[in-house]
Amino acid sequence: MKIFLPKIKVLIIFIFVSINIKAQVVINEVMLKPSPFTGAVTNGCVQSMAQTDLTCGNEYIELYNTDPCNPIDISCFIIGNSGTDALNIGVFVIPNNTILQPLGHLVIGGPNASSNAASIDIILNSFVGSPKLCMNGNRWFLENNDGWVGLYNRNGIPIDAVYWTFSANESSKINTAVEFNRDLCVPLGTCETVTSLVRANQIPTTIISYAGQSPNAGSTLSRIPDGGNWQRNIAPSINNTTVGNCNGGTCVTPAASPAAPTVTSPVDYCQGATAVPLTATPSGGTLNWYGTSATGGTASSTPPTPSTATVGSTTYYVSQTIGGCESPRAAIVVNVNTSWSSIISCGTSTASSVTFDWTFANFATGYSISYQVNSGSPINIGSIGNVLTYTVNSLNSGDNVTITVTPLGGSVNCFTATSFSCSTINSCPTILSPSSDQNVCLGGDPTAFSVNTTFTGNNAISFVFFNSQQTGSDMYSSLGTLIGNATPSAGIATFNPGVLGTTGSLPNTAGTYYVYAIANPTPAVVGCRPFQEIVIVVAETAVPTVSITAASCSAAGTATVTNYLATNT
């Protein structure tokens, strides 16, 4: 059954969500021999598509939308032909806002082409004198013997054409007959800049079809069924509105465009997170994924997996096809959000504990932690509140602890867990049994300093002195004065200082000096920095006083020495 569009003089503009301009529109039926077909005036009429002096033409051309799902905008398409007579050339530009419904028809021709006035959608006589219609003479008619009709898109490119000959089996005449080798006129009313249209014999054979011998009077050349192969001597279909009369074929009811598939949008990810392929739920059809193409593009059955490398929003599109009809595309917005995290570092470690410190993560209101000791099972502590440190106790010397810190906050924030490892210290090497404290006179030579130690290596023990006694591990500071280094041998590090005031010794100045034996280099673990102290007292040299009592007859003489130190004798 024909689906008729309204006459052009009352053309209704239809608006669709999408109009497919790539689907095929074909020439579907040609009435080139209305009865009688002599070309003479019969009862005041001449058989024609259009003419300037009479308005009773009976010829017509029918177009057909082969797409069962999508309407097609054929505005500015061009249809025309040439004939034996150079004056018999006619070309027409289809008006703006002309839409062909799915499996719909459009009839162009003379006002009397059908007994059903509503069957003629565009009456060409209405356009005589219009820039949309050009004719080399005063009448445009379809050739009864050798002839053709061509359909061009809005850019003047041929998209379908058909030709016929006076006798059967004369397809090669397209290369020799004059009808097929004439230039067409070009209407001024074309929508694009079209300056020429190719002749029939220039149209590729993949586009132009040979319909065979011209039909008998009152019959048509028609595609059977609609959009099918060309056949001759077919009864005109535009006069019959009986259900089932679709150019002799089975009528097809245009399919309703299916709804878009169901999707979940937006989809949120943290930057750097592992993404999974997008999903959509069809309603009985197959999905068509178009990546980020809102229109056009190439469909794929494989859903895309979003990238989370860059912060921002990306829109992906998917449609579904049901019964050969494709739905509109549904949009899925994927948001990749900035991921906030903490930077973890090691705090103070001992032989039985490690402390972890971390930086504040933007927008965090608390932190959840878990940790793993060596290769043991993870221990989940959970939320510890809005603090930036945590200490793991009850460890063994040398244990390695890996902590995982996850910032916590509102649902709109994006946080990423980070992990870091720290170790308890091994048992500290020792420095023990210092040599004795010494009292040395000015200019004296102190005896050797020594300690027992488990430190090993070249110059593993340094001897430094301070003018005051040190506390904590201050003796590892840079404020002391290095006397010299010693390489332990058999667990004993010995250094023999020089004479006071020389290189490698203490100052030759009276006073109390505190010599410390410390590890070299300084151990990285603050809690493992052993030392031993040796006190050196440098004293001024005393001048003794000698008192002599001379002997007498009654008593022996005596000598008394005072003002001296026994240790300095």
Rg, Å, rounded? 53 Å
The secondary-structure class comes to mainly beta
Oligomer: single chain
Distance between the termini: 140 Å
The coarse silhouette is rod-shaped
Residues in β-strands, percent: 25-35%
Return residue spans where pLDDT drops below 50 for at least 5 consecutive residues. Answer: 1-22
Largest sheet, in brief, is: 6 strands, mixed
Biggest sheet: strands side by side, in what order? Answer: 9-8-3-1-15-16
Tally of helical runs: 0
Q: Share of helix among residues? A: under 10%
Let me know the average pLDDT.
Answer: 87
Give me the count of strands.
38
Brief summary of the model shown:
The protein is mainly β and 569 residues long. The protein has strands at residues 25-31, 50-51, 60-65, 72-73, 78-82, 89-93, 99-100, 105-109, 122-123, 133-135, 139-140, 147-152, 158-165, 208-213, 220-224, 229-234, 267-270, 286-289, 312-322, 325-326, 330-337, 344-349, 354-358, 366-373, 379-383, 389-392, 400-408, 418-423, 431-432, 438-441, 449-453, 461-466, 481-486, 492-495, 511-519, 531-539, 545-549, 558-562.
